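Figure S7 source data.
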Amino acid sequence: MPTMTIAKAINEGLRAALGSEPKSLLMGEDIGDLGGVYRVTEGLKKEFGADRVVDSPLAESGIIGTCIGLALRGYRPIAEIQFDGFVFPGFNQITTQLAKMHARSDGQLTVPVVIRIPYGGGIGSVEHHSESPEALFAHTAGLRIITPSNPQDAYWMIQQAVECQDPVIVFEPKRRYWLKGEVDLEKPTSDPFSAHVLREGTDATVVAYGPLVPVALAAAKAAEEDGRSVEVIDLRSISPLDFDTVTASVEKTGRLVVAHEAPTFGGIGGEIAARISERAFYALEAPVIRVGGFHMPYPVARVEEHYLPDIDRILDALDRAMAY
Amino acid sequence: MAAAHLPTTEFDQTDLDGSLEAAAEMAQGEPEAPMVQLLDAEGRRREDPTFGPYATDLDGEALKAFYRDMASVRRFDQEATALQRQGELALWVQLTGQEAAQIGSGRATAPQDYIFPTYREHGVALTRGVDMSELLKLFRGVANGGWDPTATNFHLYTLVLAAQVPHAVGYAMGIQRDQKMDAALAPAATVAYFGDGASSEGDVHESMVFAASYKAPVVFFCQNNHWAISVPFEVQSRIPLSNRAQGYGFPGIRVDGNDVIAVHAVTKWALERARAGEGPVLIEAFTYRLGAHTTADDPTKYRHSAEEDAWRAKDPLLRLEKYLRSEGLADDAFFAEVAEEGKQLAAYVRKATLEMANPDIRSAFANVYAQAHPLVEEETAWFEKYEAGFTDAEGENA
Ligand SMILES: Cc1ncc(C[n+]2csc(CCOP(=O)(O)OP(=O)(O)O)c2C)c(N)n1
Ligand SMILES: [Mg+2]
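Tokens for the predicted magnesium ion complex:
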């Protein structure tokens, strides 16, 4: 099994999709000769040509809108948004058109558009380059939202997104683009819309996704040294959200911490807390505790370490959960 | 031909024909279009019946001041690049090659005008009197802005491309209203700076529609530096961008963006016109980004060095130097003095950067809302307690 980075795994996944699905094509800013600002599309234009790997004008509404048109014509467009903070000129097309096309055509039309968005902070960058806007999209029915946390998932989930009949937003954890891991090129990972239990435990469950998965695992390891057995779940899919896996875990551990980089207020953690308290009320020994960003615009690079959830913040939440 | 797409508010069909021709020509390759030029690449003055008169008041001192500004900001740019390489800045956005477009236009603005830059307008900032070290705060990661925009009427940089352009139109609509209320108010206008890439964003289109509808006193100043990161101009437009103005119903002018005299003259004309209530103008400054997009970019991936070399020959500083020398307006002593000033600016900016205080996340909490907000208060309190936990723990350990 080859070892590769997440960036390379997505690159290979895209190459496989372009190779096997003749109607697939990539569209985005600087994705051609440059190979994208993170080089995720490196070499693809050379291999598949300018009709399959399209360097678009600088206009996100145009990118998403024309991808919708291409999808209506039977194509399988894969759009790249350069950074999380720049998706918003395309937000109108995503929420009013892409998400609703299937429903408003009474199920007659499908728009299998994939939108890749590098997201999250921790890269010391400038404004609008470190955001986690997934909740804004999760709130919109009609969109599927996935976020791989390792190369194996990255390689397969991008291909599974292309195969999906619904629009799929793939949030790529940009600070983990260089995280390496083995990729089984033969055997696909299971259902991309399901959660994975990455580590079993009995005292508490930590749910995370995308860039915080390695942090959650590290926190679980640190907790083990204190004699706590922590289960870690990689959500992988934000919409749909695999509540069954989370519920089963909480029924076993009785305690739940949800961690994401996005602000907690109005976030995915709140949704999980509400559903789990409905589904597993009697199993819960403590309230569900959220670890996340604060209710503020993503702060400047020099203070982002105080904003981003780290091992200590997760351990603090575990302490609080265990204290009940 | 000096200026084919001229200052007429009426829609002129012959101009359109010209632009279609230009479009056909462009489809063949490099966009060639008539362009206002008052100083050519060899440093020779050119005549222009329309815009020449807007340059007649520029004496030797004024031209030397232009040179001084351009040399200063180039030196500043080099220092910032060095600071980035040394790890003192996270990123730097270079302006080298675009000095004339920025100094020429910036020097045409009046103090009461209000400027909306993108992120590369360090030269314009200099002309507005912004403390140049403050421009680096954003790139050092200590601030999202870095200066007080109301002190110099130079707005904060905006990184979401084109998002500031409608703001310039709205601000101009405010100026219109103020002037109706108070006839004694000094006439003012706004300038919106954006790039060839950003011109494709819907915000630019909507801005131009609004500006035309209300005859807002705004000058759209597009620096066409030929590249939007790796994407060449041809992907954004098949015709000169200045031609688009006709479609909205106001004049568009392409000017040699490496000719500080022409840029100054055209901007001065456009601003006077806007302040006089005659509506918006689109200026396309035809220039070139000589450096990388940012210090994180590698242009060898997408463009040939021969193209860069061809543009280096059109360097805005060189041509003005040639002119000043050939006219006997400036000598070695002047250029040595300018170099010394640049050095001083660089030293000042370096020192100020290294001394920049690291921000505190508490100020980020404090600045989310103008009025007290219970959630922010709750989270601030939580954060204080959380942080204090570490200090206590450390105290215990000690
Ligand atoms: C809305 C939005 N989309 C994408 C980006 C990412 N991005 C930053 S600069 C840039 C190219 C800008 O080109 P241009 O407008 O020509 O300005 P220049 O950098 O050449 O001055 C891109 C795509 C952004 N900042 N904002
Ligand atoms: Mg450009």
